[in-house]
Structure formats: structure tokens, C-alpha cells
Sequence to fold (370 residues):
Amino acid sequence: MKNQEIKFKNNHSKYSILIGSNVLPALPKRIKILCPKTKKIAVIIDKNVPRKFKNILKNILKNFKIIFFSYQASEKKKSFNDVNKFLTKLLSNNFNRSDLIIGVGGGITGDLSGFVASIFKRGINFINIPTTLLAQVDSSIGGKTGVNTSHGKNLVGSFYQPKLVLSDTNFLNSLSKKEIVCGYAEILKHAIIKDPNFFSWLERNTEKILLKKPGELTYAIKKSCLIKLHFVNKDVNEKGIRMALNFGHTFAHAIEVKNNYSKKISHGEAVLAGIILESKMSVLKKICNIKIFNRIESVYKKNNLTYTYKKFLNANRIKSLIPFLKNDKKNNDEKINFILLKDLGKTTKPNNFKFSIKNLNNLSKFIAQF
Ligand SMILES: NC(=O)c1ccc[n+]([C@@H]2O[C@H](COP(=O)([O-])OP(=O)(O)OC[C@H]3O[C@@H](n4cnc5c(N)ncnc54)[C@H](O)[C@@H]3O)[C@@H](O)[C@H]2O)c1
Fold:
């Protein structure tokens, strides 16, 4: 599949998403058009991005004054402290608003560098170059930026749109299988909540995505971005429709918190488990046909992904997650609010399915026996 461009536009912003293998060389030309006054570029680059990409960037951006800030991305270092360090470096290098920050890395680097860009002199040009599958299909889209605090993850941030998102699938070659699965979980969720045809395509092509075939990756990234844009564009402030994106995430969040965000279970693996648990709930509540669940489950079976939910075939294991469901930010009363599945491409509305703790405890054994 040849390189793709999504041209996004709404009342507040306008930017392109370039997707494909080897789209990186398009960068200098785009900068000239989008940020014609830029003289200096600060590249905040994840240390784990292979060195050859730094050399390519150095080479293609040689007509600018370019400074690399390498960043050891971790949830711990997605912090005010690091934001402050980068702000200080920008100030001491006399950056001004017409200059440019480029974030090169996964979701952590994108969130942090977008946040730095949004507050530096009240907003400097920002380009996002996501280098993980999760960042290419999810976190680089929608304009959410931010950092963690000692009170929790992503609690401080801003909405700030980039001038350009450039998703080159060549970056994904050095990613581990676990990281690819992480991004795939969001791709699968996007297909399930919005696009039955894309889901059918995933039934046939998941293996190729997991094997990092560039053509299939380009198609899946494009589809995923379009679906995420559909939701965030309708609902920029995260209420209402955007909550469909939380499908699978209520349980996923509980799994991650219960495991103390251990690296043993990645976010994507928790989401894959959450998709199964919440699909089972949808069938048990008689709003979704079991045939839909069977189709979803068979994608896992065909692609060795059942390990993500095996643990939760046990009622006590599911029950042990319930206390961690409580603090989910979507809940505005004592009950737990779930987005459930009605059909491929259709979810329930927020606040239509709320469960008390007692209800959930009773339901656990049926989910496990399912
Ligand atoms: N802004 C949003 O809307 C949004 C949405 C979802 C997630 N997020 C955030 O995204 C973050 C997770 O993103 P992520 O999964 O990309 O994590 P990440 O940024 O930690 O990257 C995952 C790992 O891959 C490494 N890495 C990055 N690119 C690489 C490459 N090309 N080759 C080899 N290794 C590479 C990183 O150093 C890291 O170890 C979380 O902090 C989450 O809060 C934000």
C-alpha cells in the first residue's frame, strides 16, 4: 500500500497525518510550508529509538539549527521535573514561538513534548513523530498532552494540536512483540466499536500486523486514526460520544492498577483482556449476540492472544478486580459505568449500563463460566 495522508480539519485546528513506510523524508518540505518562520528545531527523542533515525533527521534537517534532547522515556520521567528541564534548555537556547519542537518516540515522549510545546511561551509549533504502534494509532491523535504526578497518571496536561503527525512504519521494526500487541489492542478496539468492515479485515489480516508487514500496518494505522478522529472530533472535551473509546478499558484500568502498572502486563494486554470481559458482559446483559463474541474471541485464538485473558476465566480473579473499578474517572456516582457492545460497530451510550458492586460480584461467576 502506498503512503497515505489524512487531512484533518475542524473548527479549532487543521493538520495532516502522514502514514507509510519511509514517509520521514517528507518532513523538511512540510516544515517549510507549515512553519515558514522556523529557524531552530528542538528534537525531543526517545533514547530507545534506533540511532540511525537520529542520523536521518540530522541529515534531512541540516538547513535548520537543530538541537537533540535525548529522553529516557518512562512513566516516572513523564513528569514536571523533566518538563522543566526541557523548558529551561529551550529558554537558554533562545527558542521563540515561531521555532519548532518535534517529539520522536512513543506515547510518553509525544505526551510530554506536546505538553512542553503547549506551555512554552504559551505555545510553540509542534510536530509529533510517533515511533510505537500505540502512539501511531492512538496517542498521537486527539491533542491530549500531559504528565504524571504523584497523585496519578496523566493528571496534568493540556489539549494542544500538532502541525503535523508523521507515522513512519520503519520505526516499528525495532519494537518488541509486546509493544506491537499494545498498539494492536487499540486497533482491534477501534474496529469493534466503529467499523464492522475493518473488523472483518482484521479477522483476515491480524497476523500480518503482528508480523509488522508495512502494507497492512499502513492500512490499519490509517483506519485506526480515522476512527479515533471521528470520536475526538465530535466530542473534544471527552464527554458523551468519546467515551465509546473506553470500551474494554474499564476492566483494563482495574487490571493495570491491581498489578501496580507492572511491566508484566502491558496496557495493551490489559485492554485485550478488558475487551473480552466487557464483550462477555454485553452478551450476558442480552444486548449483544453471542455470534459477535465468538468472532472476537476467534481473532484471539487464531493469533495466540488468548494468554491476555486466560487468568480471568476464574470468578475469584474477576472479583479481585472489582475494588479497582471504583476509581475509574468515568463514574459519577457509586455505580460503575460500562460502555458495552451492541453489535460490531455499535456501543451503548455512557450511563446506560451502570453496575453496583453487588451486581458485579454476582456477574463475575457468569463471566468466568461463559
Ligand atoms: N495522549 C493520548 O491521547 C494518549 C492515549 C493513549 C496513551 N497515552 C499515553 O501513551 C503512553 C504509552 O505509550 P507507548 O505505549 O507508546 O509507550 P512508551 O512511550 O513508553 O514506549 C514504549 C517503549 O518503547 C520504546 N520505544 C519507543 N519507540 C521505539 C522504537 N521505535 N524502537 C524501539 N523501542 C521504542 C520506549 O522507549 C518505551 O520503552 C502512556 O504514558 C499513556 O498515558 C496517551
The first helix runs from residue 27 to 34.
